[in-house]
Amino acid sequence: MILRSFGPASRRGAKGFWPAVVAALLLTALSVGAARGAEVYGVSARDLGLYLGSNLLASWRVAEARQWVDRLASDRPDDPQVRALEARVLFFEGRYAEARDLLDELGAEGPFRDLVEATWARTRSMQARAGGGFRVFWDDPKDEILVDSALEGLARAREAVAARLGFDPAGEEVRVEVYPTAAAFTDVSTLTRKEVETSGTIGLCKFNRIMITSPRATLWGYRWRDTLCHEYVHLAVYRLSRGQAPIWVHEGVAKYLEGAWRGVAGEVGPAGRALLARRMREGTLISLEEMSPSVAKLPSAEDTALAFAEVGTMMAFLVQQRGPDALERLVEGIGEGLGDREALEAVWGGPFDAFDRAWREWVEAQGFSEDPVEVLGLHLADRGAEGEEPSDAPDPQARDYLRLGDLLRGKGRMEAAAVEYEKAYASAPRAPGVASRHVLGLLTRGRFEEAVSVADRTLRLYPDLAVLWYRKALALWELDRPGEALAALDEVLEINPFHLPTRRLRAEVLERLGRPDAARAEAEVVALLEGGPTGHGRTAE
Ligand SMILES: [Zn+2]
Q1: CA 285 to ligand 1 center in whole angstroms
Q2: Ligand 1 centre and the CA of 495: distance in Å?
Q3: Phi, psi of 175 (to 5 degrees)
Q4: Which of 14, 481, 496, 519 is placed for a possible disulfide with 510 were both Cys, Cβ 3.0 to 4.6 Å?
Q5: pLDDT tens by residue, 297-336
Q6: Which CATH architecture has domain 390-530?
Q7: CB count, 10 Å around CB of 117?
Q8: What is the pLDDT of residues 363-393, one digit of tens each?
Q9: Cβ atoms within 10 Å, residue 460
Q10: 127-366 is classed CATH 3.40.1190.20
Q11: How far is the CA of 229 from the centre of ligand 1 (A)?
């Protein structure tokens, strides 16, 4: 996801343009993009220099902004306005300590100063490793296990985005920061905790860099490499559109391409498809305008999921109808100064309303099932005590069975619990927490084939519920199907790379498959995750 604040564009005449210029320059860092297109009547060449430097930053052309500010500084080394611009450049370069020192020297106060301070404080002890045009930063030692996979996924994302959008940040290293907790992420995100939790925002692309919360900070994990790719697409869209793409285009293209690093484009998950079908019929879709300034500010996780489904399918439809370069043309059109609807009309070859109608017809023709699929949402680990699977059921009867089952399981009476879980499943088979418990019960009773088939059926609805993949792997392992078990365990790692039982089983499976080196490497990860007090690797099934 991306957040951009759209401040009022700086359309001001000569009078009153500069009195608050230092403050304005600092604030522009928070409302990037706002300054572009502003009219600069009567501004002196001297002030124009600052203005242009600021605009370069606003379109994340950081290297050029650096050259620009260096030139200004060599002419006017003591000019506080030049130095304020330099502080912003430093911030965009990831040189937070220097940015902070400079702001202190200038006596700057306000939201930008606070953001720089928070970012400095939250990143000061980070380590980093680079590869393939990216530099990944992490803070908690356990998060280092993400780095190699992150770099691998990002390198593939870079190729996919170059092929599909024609964007490559050649020669430039993209900064990727992994935050150890939701609190740390929230501090640097300019979002509130409530916005983060309600919308399930776990990643951002802002200030020319990618930020994610470690999956370790969530209870059930999330498709974290898809998220990295998603955020990288935002970077590409931002740069190609010179900071002018509206949120719906941003999220549409990012959603469409988030799986491109693994060769899949245009995927909308089962929950999104069901929501799209129902809300379209009800006439309660989220309008494109409502998606601004950020999908992270929509009122519920369901609305956020729906918004993604809408714009993701719009892009899929556009590509299907107008060819593989449709998205590149759309985003570049915006970068060349077209409005978003104009740019879309140019690619579509007709009025926006006609596109909207055709898209609706196309969605209807897909025949997406309206049968409800729960939006799993984001569950932060520091909320605690939720367990590793959803704990509610939609109907009272299933809920009673579930509670009784959990009670028995808590007392170690797993056989009796399995019976209750089976009853709950009979009455609410589509509830993810019910199905995952039933799979556990089947494992307990040695009904492994059935466990695999219930897991598969449920995974078609909830492909992101890691515990289901893990339990499926357990069943396959028991059935002596180690190759398939490994594939299921690898799915868990795409969602929750910190799931210790998965790591342990994976080491065994690799050994069994005759891959002792890989098994040893996995055992080392287990040792790293087991050490130290900050992990919360769960030992439940
Ligand atoms: Zn996004």
Answers
A1: 18
A2: 18
A3: -90, 130
A4: 519
A5: 788 888 989 999 999 999 999 999 999 999 999 999 999 9
A6: Alpha Horseshoe (1.25)
A7: 16
A8: 999 999 998 888 887 788 776 556 778 888 8
A9: 10
A10: no
A11: 10
